[in-house]
Amino acid sequence: MYTVQGKIDQRAMIEQYMPMVRRHALSLQVRLPASVELDDLIQAGMVGLLDAMGRYDNAHGASFSTYANQRIRGAMIDELRSRDWMPRSVRRNARALDQAIGRLEQRLGRTPEEREIAQEMGISQSDYHQLLTDANNGFLLAYDESDSENGVGAVSEGGPPSPFEALLDGDNRERLMAAIDALPEREKLLLGLYYQEELNLKEIGAVLGVSESRVCQLHSQAVARLRGRLVN
């Protein structure tokens, strides 16, 4: 939208793209601790939108919608990174989870069960489930961050890459597919519903017959299984 002078009409553009900003904010908020306010994400996204308006050049070939989409999400991720919102203990526990699953994979020659992973880590199953919930937020945001360069996400309007796409380069794709095939059927189905069918957590929970929080735990466990198998 342009004025008669050929300049972008900022007010009209903000009104048009505000739903996009809110959609990105809501998408990120469900993956983050309750301490992260929706309004803060929206404010960061608005900064990204304004930046897109100032920098956009249609000579580069991308549509403004695609360019704004990248800038909005990138600005939100930059805001989260600047806060260092993920506690070091959660990062440490996520690494310990990957390592525990990797050890069990090698020792047992099969996919370990939840109780076996909890036992390997020396914690109760209740504590293990909490660890999965905490780690899930870090897994998801980490893949969004991996698509960001200098605050500009390289995501398309289709969204960020799946975790298994972000884990590997093309040379290791066969190993990746083998690791996915080795996942328990429910976790394999969950990844397909989330990253291919693009269902939300509530919808996936309805399909699997579990709560949204359990979907988060299963997602975290599935990604940890992939990481545990692929980095060892």
UniProtKB/TrEMBL annotation:
PROSITE patterns: SIGMA70_1 (PS00715), SIGMA70_2 (PS00716). Gene3D superfamilies: 1.10.1740.10, 1.20.140.160. The keyword Transcription applies. Residues 40-53, 200-226 form the RNA polymerase sigma-70 domain. Residues 201-220 bind DNA. CDD domains: Sigma70_r4 (cd06171). Residues 13-85 are annotated as: Sigma-70 factor domain-2. Keywords: Cytoplasm, DNA-binding, Sigma factor, Transcription, Transcription regulation. Residues 179-227 are annotated as: Sigma-70 factor domain-4. It is found in: Cytoplasm. It comes from the Bacteria. The keyword Cytoplasm applies. A motif (Interaction with polymerase core subunit RpoC) lies at residues 40-43. InterPro entries: RNA_pol_sigma-70_dom (IPR014284), RNA_pol_sigma70 (IPR000943), RNA_pol_sigma70_r2 (IPR007627), RNA_pol_sigma70_r3 (IPR007624), RNA_pol_sigma70_r4 (IPR007630), RNA_pol_sigma_FliA_WhiG (IPR012845), RNA_pol_sigma_r2 (IPR013325), RNA_pol_sigma_r3/r4-like (IPR013324). Sigma factors are initiation factors that promote the attachment of RNA polymerase to specific initiation sites and are then released. This sigma factor controls the expression of flagella-related genes. NCBIfam families: FliA_WhiG, PRK06986.1, sigma70-ECF. This is RNA polymerase sigma factor FliA.
